[in-house]
Amino acid sequence: MAQLIFLTILVGGAWLLYRRFVADAEKLAAKSRAEEKERENQAIGTLIQDPETGEYRPRREDDD
After folding, report:
1. What is the count of structural domains for the chain?
2. Local mean pLDDT, 10-residue blocks, the chain (64 residues)
3. How much of the chain is helix, strand and coil, in % rounded to 5?
4. With CB atoms 3.0 to 4.6 Å apart as the test, which of 33, 54, 58, 62 could cross-link to 45 if both were Cys?
5. pLDDT value at position 20?
6. What is the number of H-type helices and E-type strands within the chain?
7. Rounded-to-integer distance, Cα 58 and Cα 22, Å
8. Amino acid 58: pLDDT
9. pTM of the prediction?
10. 3-state secondary structure of 41
11. At a CB cut-off of 8 Å and minimum separation 6, what does 38 contact?
């Protein structure tokens, strides 16, 4: 019985690590596509609108 519980915990942990890896890979791919699009357009940066003030500012790395 203990082996079954250990195996269940091990498989669950592996599944969570896999899902996190996939999420990080998708985020990295999206960032790479955005950077490539900026290079194609010869843009210096991407502007995003601040929802509170309505002003545009360059996108920072911590913006998601």
Report:
1. 1
2. 95 98 96 88 82 87 69
3. 60, 10, 30
4. 58
5. 98
6. 1, 2
7. 28
8. 84
9. 0.62
10. coil
11. 44, 45, 46
List the structure tokens of 10. 């091990």
Give how far the C-alpha of residue 48 lies from the chain's centroid of Cα atoms, to the nearest Å.
Answer: 18
Length of the chain equals 64
Torsion region of 37: left, alpha or beta (phi above 0 gives left; psi -120 to 50 gives alpha): alpha
The residue segments making up the domain with residue 8 are 1-63
What residues contact residue 56 under an 8 Å CB cut-off, 6+ apart?
Answer: 47, 48, 49, 50
Residue given tokens 């791919």 in the structure block: 29
pLDDT for the residue 27: 94
